[in-house]
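Below sits the subject:
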Amino acid sequence: MAVTVESHATLGEAARALGSGATYLGGGTIVMRDLNAGLVQGRVVRSTDPALTQIRPMGDGIEIGAGVTMAAIAAHPDLGFLHPVVRAVGGPQVRNMATIGGNLFAAHPYGDLAGALLALGARVTIAGGMQRPVEDVLRDRARVGLVAAIQVPRPRDARAFGFRKVSRVKPKGVSLMSFAALLPREGGRLRGVRIACVGLGPAPLRSPAAERALEGGTLDAATIARAAQLVTDGLDPPTDALASAWYRREVAGVHLRRLLEGML
């Protein structure tokens, strides 16, 4: 079957075109690979809507268009808290193509930025205006619709957010696993803890057990050790070419502990 590419001036037009069974092309790091492999055929839809590449302040956070690249995030002064995350994604060529919207749909072992957005409690705007928590989008990615933008809350202070990526190939290999932590403090106590994991399930997800171990306490050696011990409770790490499920369970706590110790 031949491949045809359609360009639409607005996101709304592109969304309507997708309704008839087409594939959406954003940055191209995922779809172009599948096109070259013959896995995508038929109609391919893209949009030149300028809103897709905009970054703008919004309340206590920042709205990032779904077509904003990792390189653009890394260069934006208001997104410093995300710089360590996007700079850990591939090399310059990948970061110049890969988009924040596309990373929400990146299958394991990719999706480090999606994990960070999960920890930050981001919200996703779908074409047409409906908003959904990023957690809901990651849980059911096949039925999301066309993503227009992501609203990312800004951490209250530099210590409140941290990220750690673990890979076998240094420095830019795919993730064996990665962790993102949001640790807001009120009066010295942790309130609203969010711990997100990539590589410990089929998609980025939170660790409720680690969150409970930290919530309401102080960030010290004892609470960190407890959270590290419990991080994989209730999770189902995969076995793949990178590592076995057993290995992931064995080392996940070590790397979460190192992340949390760096946030003391």
